[in-house]
């Protein structure tokens, strides 16, 4: 039990801020002007900071002092990272903390709006061995059917994913090795996806998002593995799902001309919004190419263009998340709260909210008009009774509770 200091100091917030800012206890102690032992006591909950120390602490990590007294929302489920290397431990902790801050933003905004109803295929696999290639193809097809996408190229995958109730975050992380992660929020009963914006490649970003969608659909009930081979198996299944979702067998296969050439694949790349490398893997999965044919194309691709880039990579801008951005804009348009009050309501720094919600830098000093995606709440409703999203309709909002 803590002795002295600010009442209600939440030590879990301190651990979260250390991860989010990638600071050690020693570094934070130096910035705040206290001893490392004092920070250790704050983190252990045996001591709480005095008022002056709390204000210095909040200032150096750029949050409000009151943020440290808010109980953290329940943690999201353990994300599955693309790389299983232990060298990324600090990077993973930072990304998990950023994802939890995204959840904080979404939870704070959910007091006033209804998000789109969650609309994902339900799969109850508890072991990756249960998941066959046929099951993956069926799950990808069912997802397209639920979202009424037909079997043509998806024009905007980010919009489709958010319309299905997934909260999408895309921000520069400084960690190019980790393209994305996904997790489930218990408090909102919906998933979150965080994509890295460090590589400005719309083709790769789409595939990364479809890959995370595969994890959400196929692996929700499978414990996160520690064994390398099991982790690799889940990654391969998510890759297979991404290929099946973005390049549906019924229509994509009919557009492939034999023998397959790299120039033909570049045309398919532009039409379907999928890289040549991913197309070759899909052709192998559909048995249009055998292993030898696929390897031959990969070798020719590497010799002609190099291993890490393809012609036209800059032709397609990455798709941008809209849900949190438009929800904040809606709250301001409907006069729920002044723009500059939103960061105070959430408790995070304005620039963190701007980054996580996909807002332009300096948004809270002035904004532009955008179309709404979320809609204001007219009355409290249970999650099972929420109506389907209709971005063209804005209902009267429920006034925030008075203090």
From TrEMBL:
UniProt-listed InterPro entries: Cro/C1-type_HTH, IrrE_HExxH, Lambda_DNA-bd_dom_sf, Rad_response_metalloprotease
Domain HTH cro/C1-type: 14-68
Region: Disordered, residue numbers: 301-320, 379-403
One Pfam entry name: HTH_3
CDD domains per UniProt: HTH_XRE (cd00093)
PROSITE patterns documented for this protein: HTH_CROC1
SMART domains: HTH_XRE (SM00530)
Compositional bias (Basic and acidic residues): 310-320
PANTHER family reported in the protein's UniProt record: ANTITOXIN HIGA1 (PTHR43236), BLL7220 PROTEIN (PTHR43236:SF1)
Family: Belongs to the short-chain fatty acyl-CoA assimilation regulator (ScfR) family.
Name of this protein: XRE family transcriptional regulator
Organism: Thiobacillus sedimenti
